[in-house]
User: Fold this.
Amino acid sequence: MKKIQYNSPVILTYVLLCCGVLLLDGITGGRTTNLCFCVYRSSMGDALTYVRLLGHVLGHADWQHFFNNVLYLLIVGPSVEEKYGSKNLLIAMLVTAFISGAAHMVLSPNAALLGASGIVFMLIFLASLSGMKKGGIPLTLILVAIFYLGQEIYSAIFISDSVSQITHIIGGICGTVLGFGMYHGKKG
Assistant:
């Protein structure tokens, strides 16, 4: 009999934490999510502001929001974790969470942000760098940038919805910058 493998510890643990936060949200009537797992402009003197800067990527509005993000996490995440390593992926996730949270506080002062979509976009862009060769830019990265970022920029300008396109764009930028950085750090 084959054993079930915990093959992608960072991604699987992240998914479980997101699920736990959503369960806690239901138990507390949303209080824990509002307090710790969504980011919004608040006093820098409030210690929970710093928790929310990272914690917002664990919160989700509802089960549909959660499943939409988790499917991408589970499809793209394990191969990215295998390629870049668990430690590097965890660092990339924390950097992306902090930058997207801080940007949201500055750029959207009257709204709250939660969800894993910035992390998802970061993973998609990291994955698009697979097979990168010295001195080249992968065509997959260019196509992903055109299609994904192009769609997000269009949506940000022409569509009014509750989706934070800036978070997606920041996730993509973080994935690209961190991917090139990890590639050159490994090769140099």
About this structure: Residues 53 and 101 are 5 Å apart (CA to CA). The domain at 9-187 is CATH 1.20.1540.10 (Rhomboid-like fold).
